[in-house]
Amino acid sequence: MSGEHDNTNRGVLFRNDRKAEGSKQPDYRGEGNYGGTDFEIAGWLRDSARGTKFLSLSFQPKRDAANQAPRKPQEEDVPF
Predict the structure, then answer these.
(1) C-alpha span between 78 and 15 (Å, rounded)
(2) Count: domains in the chain
(3) What pLDDT was estimated at residue 80?
């Protein structure tokens, strides 16, 4: 059995242990993939007006390590 996994349309979040008290940094950070495009994911714990707790998420295309520019989706990345 191969050690490779198909992570298309999957993601993961981890608690941000480096967040400073009172900071606007996300409570959770991670990465994911949707339709073949890699994303950085950030999550903040919030309370709704009715007091229900929820997780607010932000997605940004993952940056190319070489030039720090977002990776441009390729035609073959489109799932349909």
Answers:
(1) 31
(2) 1
(3) 44
Pairwise CA distance, residues 53 & 29, whole Å? 18
* Inside any domain, residue 39: yes
Tokens 């949707």: give the residue. Answer: 34
Q: What is the pLDDT of residue 1?
A: 43
Question: pTM for this one?
Answer: 0.70
Residue 78 lies in a domain: no
- One-character DSSP codes across the chain: --S----TT-EEEEE-TTPPTT--S-SEEEEEEETTEEEEEEEEEEE-TTS-EEEEEEEEEPBPTTT-PBPPPPGGG---
